[in-house]
Every structure is written in C-alpha cells, then in structure tokens.
Amino acid sequence: MPLEPIAAGPWALVPALLAISLAWYVRDALIGLFVGIAGGAVVYGLFRPEVVGVPPGLDGPLGTLLGGLLGITVIPELVATSPLFADPWYVKNVLLALFAIGGLMGLMIRAGAIRGVLEALASRVESPADAEKASFLAGVIIHIDDYFNCLVVGSMMRPLTDEHDVSRAKLAYYVDSAGSPAARLAFYSTWGVALVGFIGAGITAAAKQNVLPAGMSGYVTQTGDGLQAATDAVWPLFFNTLGFAFYSWVALVVAALVAWQVIPNIFEMGEEEERARNGGGVVGPDDDPLVSDEMANYEMYEGATPDWRNFAIPVLTIVGIGLLAMFWRSSPVLNAPRMTSVLSAFGSELLVPAGGPWSLNIGEIRLGLASMMGLLVGFVLFRARGDIPSNADATDAMVNGFKGIFLAAAILTLAITIQNTVSTLGISSFVTDWFQGVPVGLIPVLVFAVTAFVSFSDGSSWATYGIMFPIVIPVAFTTGANLPLALGAVLSGGIFGDHCSPISDTTVLSSSTSGADHMVHVKTQIPYALICAAIAGTLFLVLGFLVPGDFSLIPY
C-alpha cells in the first residue's frame, strides 16, 4: 500500500534536484532518476524512521541517521505505488499503449510501411527545409494524444529527416514542441478529458475550503463519497482556459517559424544542424541515441511492397477508436437545459442546444484499447498482403519493436516514480505557501513560474496539474484573480517545465522515437522553450493587472 504522505518542506525537492543535476552531469537519465528516487527514500526515512524499521526506543540523532540509511528499503514501495503500476488508467493507457505502439512500429518497419511513407513523401520533400516542415506538420496533425504523437511521429519521420541530413535533435524538437502543445489545445484529445478532470478536482477543493462562489455551486455535487465535480459543467471553463494557454500557442508559432527557417538554429541546435548538413552524421560521434540497435538496424522484408497505406490504416484505426471511445455516447455529447432535434435516423436523434448554459458529456480515454486494436489491424493487414511472410516473422518484428521502446519504458517508469516520490514528500503543501500575501495582479505570472518549477522538478505536466489545479483555483477565488487566466498559467507552466526537464516522460519519448541522444535533445530544446516562456510570462504579467477578475472569453 502507498506510503503515508509527509510534509518534508524544501526536502521534497531533493529527489528532483538529484535526478536532474546528475542526469545533466553524467548525461544518463536512468542513473539520475534512480539516484533521485533513492535520495527521496532516504529523506522519507529521515522523517519517518519508525516506518522504515528503526526500533521505537531509538530516538535522537542516531535514530534519525539510521532512518535515513534504512530509507532505501522503501524504494520498491515508491516504484510499485507509482501511478504507472498502481493506477489502472496508467497501466491501460500508458504502459500498454507504449508497448502496443512499439510492437506496431516493429511490424511497420518489417512490412515496408515506414518505407512507403518515405517514398510517398519523397516527391514532395526535396530539401532539408522541406523535411523540417513535414516533421512540424506531422507533429501538429497527429495530436490525439501526446504519447501517441511522440511514438508515431518520431518513428515515421526519422527515415525522411535522416535522408535529408536533418539532425535527430531537430526532429525531436518538432516532435516535442509541436505535438505536445497541439494535444493540450485540442479539446477532443486525451488531454481535454484529463484537464477537465484536473480542473474539476480544483473546484472540488475550493468547495471543501468554502471559497467556491455561490454562482458556481452547480459545478459540484454531493454524493455518498462526498463532494464531486460535475464534470460536464466544467467544459465551458476549460474552453476559457485554452484561450489563455499562452505558452502552447507561442510554442506552436515558434516551432512553425523554425521549420520555415524564419527563426534560425541557435546555440547547440546550430552545432547539431551544421554537423548534420556537412555530412558529419545526424547524431554526434559521442551521442547515445535513445533507440535500440535492434530497431535502428531492423530491415524491411525483401518481399514486402512499400506502401504508405500500410502505415495509414493502423494509425487511423488508433485515432478512430480513440475518438469513438470519447464521443460514442448513449446520451447527447452536447447538453443544455433546452435541446432541439435536427436529425433523426435509425432510431437515433442528433440533438443540439436550443438555450441555456451548455455542457459537454465526453467519454473516457481509451488509448490502450485503441493501440491494441491498431496493433491487431496491422498484424492482420500485413499478413494478408504478404508483406510479412509468416506469423513467426511477425512475432520477431513485434519483439524488436518492444526492444526498441524498452529503454524509453524504463526511463518513463523511473520518471513517474519520481513524481510519486515528491508527492509523498509533500511538494503540494510546500508550494501552497508560496502564494501567501501576493498582489492579485502578480498571481498569473507567479502561478506560471511556480507551475513550471514543479513540472521541471517532477518531470510530468500530468503530475504537476494534479498538484497545482487544486492549489490555484482556491487561490484565484480568495484573491479575486481572473480564474481562466490563472488556469491558463497552470496549463502553460506545466508544459514549459516539461519541455526543459530531462526527466520528463514526453521528452524521453521524443528522444527515443526520434533516435536522439536524450540530453542533447533537452539542451537543444531549452533555448526555444525559454523564448516561448519569456513571451508567455510577459503576457501573464501584463494581463494579470489589466484583465478584470470576472472577465471570460465565453460564459461559464
């Protein structure tokens, strides 16, 4: 069972600081992450010596020191109770999807699907600049989920960018800085449902603290388990939040300007691109690409026919099933107090709002199911077409795909364990104290900065949103800060910190599927992330003083 949370104060930052600094120094994310988890376990033992096995009668400095030494015994609990293993949602929609898409990539390589995409694009991509534009556009278009985007776009575009001498670091930048912001801004993506849940948790926290405005009482309901958010009522507030998600909007514009050669390659990205263009290789001689030799050197079956449709059909299966799971509902997706039927067919009606405040009723995220169906469709398709000669060959292809994704899965496991560790050490309560006595106009920019710091420290905007929304929403209500602007600052800070952190899950996946050295990707992406953050931070600072507390883009 999970360890009892504690309030370790600034010591809650130890795991993240150890992981990030060591990963930066030794250029190995696995080592940094493991040491960070071990450091967190030691801190837990120092604060709770009785939990780690120190005898009750042994008090004082000796007991504390022994608690720190025995703290490493809770490492298995920190790993086992992290969301990746303890939460069925993570198992189904992250771990299962990760390996399913890895297996599908192995099948696609063997069946010539990746080669088919490359050949289809070859007539339209004639230069490195064209390859960069194609990579950016692929990242924006395939945005149903940021994990899915990382896994597919990097694998799909890597052969194309390699052929045109675009560095792997540049490809990883497009995968990370186009796909993730686009996924956060698409309400129909997996992030849309998740963010509504996070905002709902924050509203519930405000209701429990008795600071929820009377006009928003309909946002929570009383159940047998206590107060719960009325999720369908949260959607209009969520749409307001998207309008103020400045970092995501700016990141997309900057990435587009980089792809169209308006913004130049700066700092280490310039060095990476210069080496690649001059024939020195798309990765440096001392780089350690996050892709296995099995995947990088795996070859297409000699009897396969390269065909881009072999890629499109499984991918469209994944996207289609993912969207169906969200929008195929027995009740209307869009609701209002008054509804009108505009179409009736086969016993079903298309209902649209006819008046009153509206809400959305969207289903759950089923990325694991969608990915498994994509893998199944790919297997059957490739075998039926003869692009993979036997079941045994198909199994070998999937195993190679699993191997190719294993390092990313290992880093992802440890990164999510870091999130669990800092949460157990009480980073939430530590951060809450930072907002005491702050002028209302500074709330948005401070929220942006604090959220970015938390996201950088725990390596996950997902975990960060779980921490920050329940903190920021009550703060906005009690201080009079504009709520959509403050929530936009949370959304922006989470992804900015994510883009800069070497222990970020999506940053790891971007490096992995692009075949880039992970620390090189982090170092080359940070300057662009800082440009975006400077623009977003300025907007939050200015609008924090100019936007009235009751302003909204649409009524909520």
Layout of secondary structure:
Blueprint: H1 14-26, H2 29-47, H3 60-70, H4 75-80, H5 83-86, H6 88-111, H7 113-122, H8 128-141, H9 146-163, H10 168-185, H11 190-208, E1 220-223, E2 226-229, H12 231-243, H13 246-259, H14 268-277, H15 293-297, H16 309-327, E3 334-335, E4 338-345, E5 348-355, E6 359-360, H17 367-385, H18 391-424, H19 427-432, H20 443-458, H21 461-479, H22 483-500, H23 505-514, H24 518-546
Antiparallel strand pairs: 1-2, 3-6, 4-5
Structure overview:
- The protein has 556 residues and is mostly helical.
- The protein has 24 helices and 6 strands.
- The protein has helices at 14-26, 29-47, 60-70, 75-80, 83-86, 88-111, 113-122, 128-141, 146-163, 168-185, 190-208, 231-243, 246-259, 268-277, 293-297, 309-327, 367-385, 391-424, 427-432, 443-458, 461-479, 483-500, 505-514, 518-546; strands spanning 220-223, 226-229, 334-335, 338-345, 348-355, 359-360.
- The strands form 3 sheets. Strands 1-2 form a two-stranded antiparallel ribbon. Strands 3-6 form a two-stranded antiparallel ribbon.
- Helix 8 runs parallel beside helix 10.
- The longest helix is centred in the last third of the chain and has 34 residues, at 391-424.
- It starts with 13 loop residues before the first helix and ends in a 10-residue tail after the last helix.
